[in-house]
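Here is an idea for our session: we take a single protein and study its fold together. Start from the sequence, derive the backbone structure tokens from it, and show both lines together. Once you have written the record down, we can walk along the chain together:
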Amino acid sequence: MMIQLLEGGTYLVNETELVEPAKAAAQGLPAPEEAAKQTMAYNILRDHNTSGNMEKLQIKFDKLTSHDITFVGIIQTARASGLEKFPVPYVLTNCHNSLCAVGGTINEDDHMFGLTCAKKYGGVYVPPHQAVIHQFAREMLAGGGKMILGSDSHTRYGALGTMAMGEGGPELVKQLLSKTYDINMPGVVGVYMTGAPIPGVGPQDVALAIIGAVFKNGFVKNKVMEFVGPGVSNLSADFRIGVDVMTTETTCLSSIWRTDDKIEEFYAIHGRSEDYKELNPGPVAYYDGMLVVELDKIRPMIAMPFHPSNTYTIDELNANLMDILDDVEKKAQISLDGKIDFTLKDKVHDGKLYVEQGIIAGCAGGGFENICAAADILKGASIGADAFTLSVYPASTPIYMELARNGRLADLMATGAIVKTAFCGPCFGASDAPGNNDFCIRHSTRNFPNREGSNPANGQIASVALMDSKSIAATAFNGGYLTSAEDCPVVYETPEYEFNEHIYENIVYNGFGKAKPETEIVYGPSIKDWPKMPALTENLLLQVASVIRDEVTTTDELIPSGETASYRSNPYKISEFTLIRKDPQYVGRAKAAQEFEKARVAGDKEKAGTFYQVLKAVGVDTPVEELMKTTGIGSVLYAKRPGDGSAREYAASCQKVLGGLANICIEYATKRYRSNCVNWGMLPFTYPDDNINLEVGEYVYLPGIRKAVEDGATRFEATIIGKDGSTRTMELQLNGVTEAEKKVLLAGSLINSYKAE
């Protein structure tokens, strides 16, 4: 067994002994609530909490990060809410839309918007191709005991002693306006590591093993993962970073690792020795759960389509190839709604699985040691003159430069591999999209449907499996036939890393503390302001625009990545892609309901009255004129567990732009998606029954909803009006709404709330 889960709480004594709560009294250990204060997570959160109440946290972060899918919307929101200057270092990277413009000036216009905003408000601007967002943060921003908030879900710098969180844009807006990040004190789950990885195992293998063990059971959901134990010291800084960034795929809130001389060396190499801080749990620390990870037992892993938790050892896959591929096909039919024939069995040649593409890229795969290991495996070899291709994206220009200096770049290129600049494209479908029906292996972050750039709505499908760079290189060594790095023995000769800080000095704009208010912001023609959003009305009449019964709905399904990202600065255009691959009729249905809301706001009694006619079924005979004053019109989306995946706020804001006013679900897959819904003024309802009786086209009538929100009601009786005029009631829940969230919901959006202050 590679990983063992200890449920029900665990003490860690002197960093070496695990003690179950039942034996705590006999050993004289403190109560769990006291020992919980000895975790690293508790102490970092305490140091950043401004509320004075460790149960209700109000966090102020040390630094903020965004990339060019998100920073335009964030700054536009902040500007509309009263932004004067950036109060903390705010880094704007350009690693997502360097290459994927649909046409024209869209991307560079956004980049110039970012540069001029950095000048005007005192920010940091990293030009395209220099660094992916998280590598720049590791190299230049992380610090021991610090906290960083980023608008990308993979904001994780725990290996460097920095507690980092990825959230939707409005949470960064709050920080830019000197507000706080408000959460209940999260649970903390320990990750106790022992042993050391065998030579063929890399960080992605460890990460996938952990994800496979905890995702489906929610073991670490919305909790902080705290990495401890003697095994941590057997991992290099790069190895820890590679595991850490993938913790996002467990659905945890954040991560933190104990630090040691290897992390101290990392900071020294990057010229920031003063930012190192030794972190360890106290003598007796209590955790809400514990993962025991035996590093020496982990073997090369693969996450099959279409989720990082769909994990197997590569040996297991090869030994049971057709059975596992059959299972993948069954899961694919669920993920693809049975709309596309999908198989990988035609990739099996003489009992071996053939792969068309390998990619080592981004914040997960583009690290120095990962690429050096791949170069060691492939030195002197050829990837073969067939369908298989290999692309490598170093995570930053300093890494690229060092690979060139030590010869690893030449070794890779000589094999037929293509080495490209720092870019997140392979992680969100903006570059190297495989051909139709192709199978790709990637050391990157996610393998959701169409994440690699295919478009199932147009009959195009490709698929991705996640693997470590070592096994990807081993597969390339064998011309594209899936191979475990264990079966490709090699002596890994990782050279020492030298960081050249002058690269960034020569090209990165650093204006923190040097705001130039007189700077004129450059607006391209595609950059549009957010639409006006009315406050929550006394009552709501919503039409059901989509019902999604998948167990989990990802943010990629709510608003796809890839080519749609080029419209990210235009709320109206990007909203046209909402649910386009999951429910192509959603946009039309939502817009149809929104037309009646526009009529209400414009005072068009005749048109608005048409929508209100359904209320006669519940005995509402109120004059139309009065209804127009009191009863807002919109749409509502139902999904079982929406929001797994990216932090992108567009998953929620696009619904709001289209007139969406509420979500109903069993539970929100991530805290960040629920926060996005709230910050855009959408009511975050839950309904615990798995078999909800709700259909597209029906109406959800919410009388007295504004007063209910004002009063802090957690239960609300809604009336459902069927398409045939029949009625029934449904008890919806509004759980966990804070006072700050209440203000936003009542105001209709975060922007409105801040404008009212």
Observations:
- The chain is about 30% helix and 20% strand.
- The two ends are 56 Å apart (CA to CA).
- The first strand starts at residue 3 and ends at 6.
- The mean pLDDT is 92.
